[in-house]
Predict the 3D structure of the following.
Amino acid sequence: MTDTLEPTQLEIADIARRLDRTVVLVGLMGVGKSTVGRRLATMLNVNFVDADEEIERSADRTVSEIFQAHGESYFRDGERRVIARLIEEGHGVLATGGGAFVDPDTRALILDRALAVWLDCDIDTLVERTSRRKTRPLLQNGDPRVILTDLKNRRSAAYAKAQLHVVTSDGPHQQTALRILKAIEVWL
């Protein structure tokens, strides 16, 4: 890719052609996996799928309802099966829930069959972004800043096992998608 901020269509097409696996975005809730994933998929001219949306469609229930009715362990088992199916179907870009990659079996599946990209950002940005939606089950019982800081401390070691690490900012999601493209190009 050239040193310019915007890669050419030919450069992006070359990356897409050489990329032989699903790009799986991992990281904490609010880091921008779904929004950035949609932009990245559009740039690569591949499809995008959100694992949480697929889980909700398959279960005909929200993630929050599944957590409440059956607990996290039950949810993680179903999540792993859905992620395996989505990777097998060959989706271009897949956004996972914040805890998916922390599960050792799900992480092993993703690392073996896909390209994991850890999207990371500061706590202030996470708090601001997650405050926009009240559908985050892990943030329902306490101070979101404390919960997110604890989650980041506990989950960062697992996220660090991803093949790529891209730091996001409070700037445009397009810039994060471009950073991912550059990281993929180097990885390839």
